[in-house]
Amino acid sequence: MTVGTIKMTSRQFLQSGEDPPGVRLELVDGEVAVSPSPEPKHSYTDRQLSFVLSEHINANDLGALFGDVDTIFGEYDVRRPDLIYFAKSRLHLVGEKAMEGPPDLCVEIISPSSSAIDRTAKFKQYEKGKVMHYWIVDPKARTIEGYKLARGKYQLTGRGSGEQVVQLPPFADLEIPLGALWWRR
Description:
The structure is a single chain. By secondary structure, this protein is of the alpha+beta class. It is about 20% helix and about 35% strand. The strands form four sheets. It has a six-stranded mixed sheet, sandwiched between helices. The mean pLDDT is about 95.
């Protein structure tokens, strides 16, 4: 007797409806992955960075910033990066229910339960999925790292910590005051 499993497709996953309260669902290699809702430090950093990026993107008419939206990375993969940026010329990839192609920038804000996933699994998946820029923000360590896709592999483009002011591609002319991103209590 042979027992088999059937992978859920990204289209099936997107038709499954909203997440239950208190969890975030993603589709990883055809299986539903569950993660807890963000903690307060994570949420604070997310909102502060969103504000800094949104002001810059809108003031310069560069494109659009989204948060926590289903993003299709293949037939069996749907992720929800914390922040997602699409340049103006690529806004056609923003679908009705999900992002239909690789963003120009994905930002993951590390939570205690997500560090390994953000630094390994999502790093590899975004690299393979041709996301041009990937930022990893760690509110606990108070750090940020920026990567750019070059010849199919991510290369470190910059990092910062604590109270430093950083500039990271794709926004090389934007100064990000890291001290403003961290919860102080």
